[in-house]
Amino acid sequence: MTTTQPLLDIAGLTLELPGTARPLLAEVTLQVRTGEVLGLVGESGSGKSTTAKAALGMLPAGGRTEGRVTVDGTDVLTLRGEALRAHRARTVAMIHQDPRAALNPVRRIGDFLTERLAHAGVTDRRAARARAVELLGAVGLPDPARHVRQRPHELSGGMLQRVVIAGALAAEPRLLLADEATSALDVTTQAEILDLLRTLRAERETGMLFITHDLHLAAAYCDRVLVMYAGRIVEQQPAPALFAHPRHPYTRGLLGCSPTLGGTAADLRPVPGRPPSLAESFPGCPFAARCPEAEPECETWAPVVSPLEPEGGPVPNGPPVPAGEAACRRLPLAASVAPATHGATGASGASTASGASEASAASGAEAAR
Amino acid sequence: MLSRLFRQLAGLVATLFAASFVIFAAVYAAPGDPAVFLAGGRDKLTPEKLAAVREQYHLDEPLVVQYGRWLWDCLHGDLGRSFKYADQVADLIASRLPTTLALVGFATLIFVVLGVGAGVLAAVRRGWVDQAVVGATTLAASVPSFVAAIGLVSLFGVRFGWFPVTGAGSGFGGTVHHLTLPALSMALGALAIVSRVTRQSMLDAAASDHVEAARASGIPERDIVRRHILRNALGPILTMCGLVTAGMLAGTVVIETAFGLSGVGSLLVNAINTHDFPVAQAVLLLMVTGYIVVTNLVDLVHPLLDPRVRAERSAA
Amino acid sequence: MSALTAAQSPQSPQPPRSSRPPQAPQTPRAARIRRPRLRPRQPLTVLIAAGFLVLVVLTAALAPLLAPYAPDSIDLSASLVGTGREHLLGTDASGQDLLSRVLHGARTSLIAPLALLALAALLGVTLGTLAAWRGGWVDTLVSRLTDVMYAFPGLLFVVLIIAVFGAGMTTSVLALALAYAPTIAKYTRSLALSERAKPYIDAYRVQGMGGARICARHLVPNLARSVVGYLVVLFGEALMSLATLSYLGFGAQPPSSDWGLMVQEGQAAVVQGALLPAMVPGTAIAAVVVAFNIVGVWAADRLGSRR
């Protein structure tokens, strides 16, 4: 474990909405370090986007929140008003799934960028104009001086996603949230955008939370990958390890149902059933109903994320480095430490943040307006 | 874009032809001799006068030719002669038009500022403010404009004495002072529809993803409302304001009568009450033309505000 | 353009004149003519409004019994008297008791809109059904006629008719009926089109029943509920239009006690500081219109939703 403080630190984040049977997020704990790409994978409705929005302090209105979200040492959920605005304007930036929906269709590309720049500290109009052109060049848009005068409907989807990324970079954020940033693009454009994001990350040392439903993409692109199911984290491993040795049955299911090159149709094994809706609640493991390996005990076992035993057994000398974590009853756990400490951090996180939770719910309401 | 302009113009011209023909041909719907009707009835009618009417309206020629000549004359500013005022109708209208236009302009200013303002307020501050705005404006719309006029006169004209009760005033300040109550009475009915369209349009615009995205990037709420919500909601708002303004040309008929203003609207009422059909015909033609032109203009301007509509239409 | 942004882009609120939108409320004229109404949140509001209307109808019916004076009994010695024991709501310039006049006036002010809507409905439903049933040139003709009428803003079409045929209550009612008919025809047409597509109509046709008979016996009765709901909503508007015409001197003529005419007659006294002669009938108009709008929206919702 590195000694430096993680850039994004979400601890025991639980979010409940009135009128739903299960929490939107349950005990979500994750860290993104500077310069690291953390992949967040799951089916739609698994809570990926909600987790990302928590880093912006944008949780749904009227919800009850527990847990703590810190970005660069700042507790996001307690931020209010101007401080929250500044946090969103300067520290964290989000790249949305559909660039066409994320841009105001009646305003020019240049206005979009200068507006973002203005709130990131570039107040001089002319300087902002110049910087906007520069940013468009930096994201690889040809002829940027022309594009600043165009409106979104004049550009293609791939070009627009570059514009959105340029907008996200305008603030020189410490943390980038890429919410399905490439899903709406065709494959070649997708590759270009991913390449661009990788270069930018290397240049600027930003941390990135990379949300996707494509496990293969995540495994190929991210440093670590975290798998979510029904608002819970079910597995977390370094990307190569996850791909090579998925531990949680759900992860294995996900890998099994995505086509691979050279595979035959028979190799595709869809995960049976459908992702659970918010109206379904689970006394035990939420995946039990769809899990091919489920045992009767799984129906009642409350899921706990526990460190995994490293592949090839515990490392004999040196500190125990958990290779990853997973929330499955049937997995062998790393010998001693982890479950207890984990439970402790979760509990402390919950207790410190409980006072702020109502207030943060209010801020969510404010944000949602 | 050009073909759209052409189509719009063709539609405008067709509607104008149809409407003007109805106004012209109405003479023949009147019971009795059209010449007698145009001259304002049988009393004090001399054969010379009747002959003059026949000559002026080419009543001896076929209907289509009459219509064509009448339209031709109207296009050249010759709207006929009033047999009551013994004056050119065009001059009568010209002398009264400024008051009417000032009234419509003033009323438009009031309903745009108050109506859009109330709509924005209702959209931004939901809850009781929203309900109060919707309730108050719809209540205002249920009051006929002449009743509102008399209510305002009673309160601000007679009881408080803040505003003059009748007349149009002179000079800019005087005109504003005199026209405040009339313009307000006329604007009251429009507040409901304008504020409601504004509110709904704003709510629709606020539900867009790009607003959420702007909020996520830390843009202050003020800027979001102004640049992203109101700006995008402007199309329907502007269209509705244009339609209401166009309709107000007809509304002056009531308000000018209520406030004793000597404008085009009261001219129409007087013309009808004194059986001066040439004047009524000319005023109706003017008001209908104004209405049709303004509504078409609004339709043309709308895409300029919204590049998406522009793109769609040029693609279509 | 992606489906998402296309869905968000505001449609041009003014449909082209040539095409007919499915529902009358979408048209610019409808937007102009029919103003938004109070949307009753609590049934209590509706109940109060309905109670008030029942009261108004009752007093109108019983006006001769309730009114303390004859509506046209002139008493110049009691000109412009304020509220008091003798005259509960005061008197007008010629000493006529305002309460008696308003009570009697309720009759014309309520019956005239009713008559005009009945006439407009007869015309509009016939034309609308015909246009929907026959289609083709009948449909085109009806819609062209409608378009020309829609080129006249506000009451100007009615004013033109009055200019030609002269002022009077009958002319006003007929003219307004003519002006309201297209809106009703448009509404009926859209309803009839969807009703016509239903299988039971085909069933009657297969049995060899004639088009006119199917329309009169089955189609129109099935539309009646929705049309009536629409008419209730139009009532407040019709009352307002008629009052406006009377106020301008185009409608009811003296010595009628029509509310609009009373406002006109009472207006001169306002400048002298006597507000009652104009405000009493003015308030009566406003109150009845508000009450009708509240009940109208409720009724339209109920009648429309049970379709």
From TrEMBL, chain A:
Composition bias type Low complexity, residue spans: 343-369
Q: How does it sit in the membrane?
A: Peripheral membrane protein
PANTHER family associated with the record: DIPEPTIDE TRANSPORT ATP-BINDING PROTEIN DPPD (PTHR43297:SF2), OLIGOPEPTIDE TRANSPORT ATP-BINDING PROTEIN APPD (PTHR43297)
From the UniProt record, give one GO term of the biological process aspect. peptide transport
Please report the name of this protein according to its UniProt entry.
Answer: ABC transporter ATP-binding protein
Q: Which cellular component appears as one GO term in the record?
A: plasma membrane
Recorded source organism is: Streptomyces boncukensis
Q: Which PROSITE patterns match?
A: ABC_TRANSPORTER_1, ABC_TRANSPORTER_2
Q: Which SUPFAM superfamilies does the record cross-reference, listed alphabetically?
A: P-loop containing nucleoside triphosphate hydrolases
Q: Where are the transmembrane segments?
A: none
**Keyword tags:** ATP-binding, Cell membrane, Membrane, Nucleotide-binding, Transport
Signal peptide limits: none
TrEMBL record, chain B:
Record field: transmembrane: 101-124, 136-156, 176-194, 237-259, 279-301
Keyword set includes Heme: no
Q: What PROSITE patterns does the record point to?
A: ABC_TM1 (PS50928)
Can you say where in the cell this protein is located?
Answer: Cell membrane
The entry's cellular-component GO terms read: plasma membrane
State the UniProt keywords alphabetically: Cell membrane, Membrane, Signal, Transmembrane, Transmembrane helix, Transport
For this protein, the record's Gene3D superfamilies field holds: MetI-like (1.10.3720.10)
> A Gene Ontology biological process annotation?
transmembrane transport
Listed SUPFAM superfamilies: MetI-like
Similarity-based family: Belongs to the binding-protein-dependent transport system permease family.
InterPro entries associated with the record: BPD_transp_1_N, MetI-like, MetI-like_sf
How does this chain sit within the bilayer? Multi-pass membrane protein
Q: Which Pfam families match?
A: BPD_transp_1, BPD_transp_1_N
- The name this protein carries in UniProt is ABC transporter permease
Q: Where is the signal peptide?
A: 1-25
Going by the entry's taxonomy, the superkingdom of the source organism is recorded as: Bacteria
Q: What is the lineage of its organism?
A: Bacteria, Bacillati, Actinomycetota, Actinomycetes, Kitasatosporales
State whether keyword Endoplasmic reticulum applies: no
Q: Which organism is the protein's source?
A: Streptomyces boncukensis
Domain ABC transmembrane type-1 per the UniProt entry, residue ranges: 97-298
